[in-house]
């Protein structure tokens, strides 16, 4: 993306994010999911990282939350309550660590047993608790990070939050029991500032929504909204009825603690509830394992989490790392794979299915949804495109709730730049050019044979003698066609692992195997590539002759050279008559075929420079026909031996044939050979014949 486009995109992103953040943080309601908002924020963050001079003090990446509501007393935090930047992948985490270590000028793991501390990221509301002389005197929300709201009376209704701290002697005993030396800490401070998270458990949330439904009211969207709304109630009795919970995770006051892990131990000693699943770990790999484990086990918890918070465990290093924008440089929220995310629709293509039905498919900027990276989403039919109001170039929300096939659920029209394009359903079939007819909500190709021909061509393309992609059998090709993953042969090489993994009965392992198999076959010899194109009357032998007579080094040269060869030149090849020559000539002068060749080149298909199979030219000009089965070698091996010596293998006997090799149970070709007076040799004579050369 160039700088001008980035500037426009950043402007639109800021406006949309600010709108949704106000709804979320101030009014406790939302129009799009947390995952979708996180995705927009991550895109903005990445753009500002790429173009730092486009950053601005009022950017959503520089702020924490919304403004405090006027109905509560405002509270200024002594030290700002920061939020976290987000990471969604191992690559994001590696980039975060690299940025931190470059800034510090050293490794954070050097001589440190547990450099990282991992906390489950509860989807709740951050609060600050202030204790004076061991008594809770103030509780406040984060607000905009600098100024929050005084919600002390409401926080006092939460039993997990102590109203009074233990006396110093009891605290000392607790610290000792927990394995630390209490003498290293300053426990006689008059004031103690603690931070934590307020949240609502799953069961309480379900009970509240059942009550809402009994009263004929709309159910709440998620527990976080209920927790935030409960804390902002003017009547503390309403808050008390909600049965909120809390885990504390940070000691703002300097007691002499040297690691974040110590802070959690001290919090327990002071009588605060802490999350028992949090853990200090020794490497970034351990962080990945911790995150992946809880991604799998998150539904076993009694509360909702949306990722893990990863913090530099050494407090001195953490302070030295400082702050970047709204967030501490030394901590990051490593989110679970979102069930919803935003991306851009780069194109809409139309695919011809097995029944001849035309299905529009959105080709999107690759995006991670539900743990897989996808680039395609079916739009089902023209009516669905109209319902969504979708244009090519739109930013959309993609949903994959419940591990189902991803679908586009909403268009974010506020992000339009004016460059988006309307999609028009084709009036001609993209596969064969026939007229498109409408059958209810479905568009179909009027040629009843179209779908079958397209399917057979794809079967042929991946077959052993062509690209040889063994992992793509007919059933898988059919499925890919039905799901809109393949609109033409070249699309095989654009399919992403995630596009396959989300399909029923596939999964990560089979998707990985298929993608790896496709990747291994992007390089292909010229004879096999010509054969794979499915040119009428062109078999393996003719493809071999074409490659030897008219060699090229890449697809671009193939297009340039073969479109200039006359039908008469093609006919000059052995066993190529007028009919075959015309078929080859017509194929390379068909605009649809040339576009397919160009697309093969654009998706990375390469012609192997070692196209010639000839290692010795002693059989140049000799033509062989094989009939019957051979005992000592396969038919393919026999063909390879003949070709390696410069000979030609033909599938039929003609007056131009030099030898017919007879194996077990030969066919009518023996009679044809006798008719033309062609020499017939047995298998053992054939082996001796080729070995002499």
Structure report:
There is one protein chain. The chain is an alpha+beta fold. It folds into five domains: 3-58, Helix hairpin bin (Helix Hairpins); 74-335, DNA ligase/mRNA capping enzyme (D-amino Acid Aminotransferase, Chain A, domain 1); 340-445, Nucleic acid-binding proteins (OB fold (Dihydrolipoamide Acetyltransferase, E2P)); 523-607, Orthogonal Bundle (DNA polymerase, domain 1); 623-692, Rossmann fold (3-Layer(aba) Sandwich). The strands form seven sheets. Strands 14, 15, 16, 17, 18, 19 and 20 form a seven-stranded antiparallel β-sheet that branches. It has a five-stranded mixed β-sheet with strand order 2-13-10-3-9. Helix 1 runs antiparallel to helix 2.
Secondary structure: helix percent: 25-40%
If you average the pLDDT, what whole number results?
88
The description of the largest β-sheet is: 7 strands, antiparallel
Classified in CATH, the superfamily of the largest domain is: DNA ligase/mRNA capping enzyme
Q: How many domains is the backbone divided into? A: 5
**Class of the largest domain, according to the CATH hierarchy?**
Alpha Beta
Distance linking N and C termini: 60 Å
As residue ranges, the low-confidence spans are none
Total beta strands: 26
The backbone outline, from C-alpha atoms, is elongated
Q: Which topology of the largest domain does CATH recognise?
A: D-amino Acid Aminotransferase, Chain A, domain 1
Number of helices: 25
Quote the beta fraction: 15-25%
What structural class do the secondary elements suggest? alpha+beta
CATH architecture type of the largest domain: 2-Layer Sandwich
- Cα radius of gyration in angstroms: 34 Å
């Amino acid at each position: 993306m160039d700088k001008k486009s980035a500037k426009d995109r950043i402007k639109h992103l800021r406006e949309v994010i600010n709108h949704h953040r106000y709804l979320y943080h101030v009014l406790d309601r939302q129009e799009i999911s947390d995952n979708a908002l996180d995705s927009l924020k991550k895109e903005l963050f990445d753009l500002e990282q790429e173009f730092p001079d486009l950053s601005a003090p009022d950017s959503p990446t520089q702020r924490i939350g919304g403004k405090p509501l006027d109905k509560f007393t405002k509270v200024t935090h002594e030290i700002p309550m920061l939020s976290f930047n987000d990471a969604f992948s191992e690559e994001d985490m590696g980039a975060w660590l690299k940025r931190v270590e470059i800034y510090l000028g050293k490794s954070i793991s050097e001589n440190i047993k547990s450099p990282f501390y991992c906390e489950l990221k509860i989807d709740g509301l951050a609060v600050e608790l202030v204790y004076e002389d061991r008594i809770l005197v103030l509780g406040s929300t984060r607000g905009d990070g600098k100024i929050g709201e005084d919600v002390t009376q409401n926080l006092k209704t939460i039993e997990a939050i102590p109203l009074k701290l233990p006396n110093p002697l009891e605290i000392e005993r607790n610290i000792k029991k927990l394995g630390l030396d209490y003498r290293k800490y300053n426990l006689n401070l008059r004031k103690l500032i603690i931070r934590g998270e307020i949240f609502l458990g799953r069961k309480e949330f379900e009970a509240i929504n059942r009550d809402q439904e009994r009263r004929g009211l709309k159910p709440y969207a998620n527990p976080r909204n209920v927790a935030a709304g409960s804390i902002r109630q003017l009547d503390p009795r309403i808050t008390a009825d909600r049965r909120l919970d809390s885990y504390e995770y940070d000691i703002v006051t300097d007691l002499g603690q040297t690691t974040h892990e110590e802070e959690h131990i001290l919090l327990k000693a002071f009588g605060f509830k802490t999350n028992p699943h949090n853990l200090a770990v020794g490497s970034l790999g351990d962080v990945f394992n911790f995150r992946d484990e809880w991604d799998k086990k998150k539904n076993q918890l009694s509360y909702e989490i949306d990722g893990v918070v990863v913090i530099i465990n050494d407090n001195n290093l953490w302070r030295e790392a400082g702050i970047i924008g709204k967030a501490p440089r030394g901590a990051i929220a490593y989110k679970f794979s979102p069930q919803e995310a935003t991306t851009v629709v780069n194109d809409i293509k139309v695919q011809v299915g097995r029944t001849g039905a035309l299905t529009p498919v959105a080709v999107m900027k690759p995006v991670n949804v539900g743990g897989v990276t996808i680039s395609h989403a079916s739009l089902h039919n023209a009516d669905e495109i109209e319902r969504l109001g979708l244009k090519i170039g739109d930013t959309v929300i993609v949903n994959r709730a419940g591990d189902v096939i991803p679908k586009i659920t909403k268009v974010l029209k506020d992000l339009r730049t004016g460059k988006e394009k309307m999609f028009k359903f084709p009036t001609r079939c993209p596969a064969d050019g026939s007229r498109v007819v409408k059958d209810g909500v479905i568009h179909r190709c009027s040629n009843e044979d179209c779908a079958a021909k397209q399917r057979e061509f794809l079967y042929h393309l991946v077959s052993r003698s062509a690209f040889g992609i063994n992992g793509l059998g007919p059933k898988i090709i059919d499925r890919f066609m039905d799901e809109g993953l393949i609109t033409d042969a070249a699309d095989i090489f654009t399919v992403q692992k995630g596009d396959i993994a989300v399909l029923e009965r596939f999964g990560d392992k089979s998707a990985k195997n298929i993608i790896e198999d496709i990747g291994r076959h992007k390089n292909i010899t010229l004879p096999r590539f010509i054969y794979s194109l499915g040119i009428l009357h062109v078999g393996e032998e003719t493809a071999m002759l074409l490659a030897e007579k008219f060699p090229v080094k890449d697809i671009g040269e193939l297009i340039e050279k073969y479109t200039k060869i006359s039908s008469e030149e093609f006919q000059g090849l052995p066993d190529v008559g007028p009919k075959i020559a015309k078929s080859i000539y017509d194929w390379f002068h068909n605009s649809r075929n040339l576009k397919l060749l160009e697309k093969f080149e654009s998706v990375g298909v390469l012609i192997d420079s070692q196209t010639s199979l000839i290692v010795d030219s002693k059989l140049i000009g000799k033509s062989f026909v094989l009939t019957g089965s051979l005992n000592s070698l396969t038919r393919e091996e026999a063909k390879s031996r003949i070709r390696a010596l410069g000979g030609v293998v033909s599938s039929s006997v003609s007056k131009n044939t030099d030898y017919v090799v007879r194996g077990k149970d030969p066919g009518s070709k023996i009679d044809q050979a006798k008719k033309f007076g062609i020499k017939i040799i047995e298998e053992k004579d054939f082996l001796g014949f080729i070995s002499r050369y």
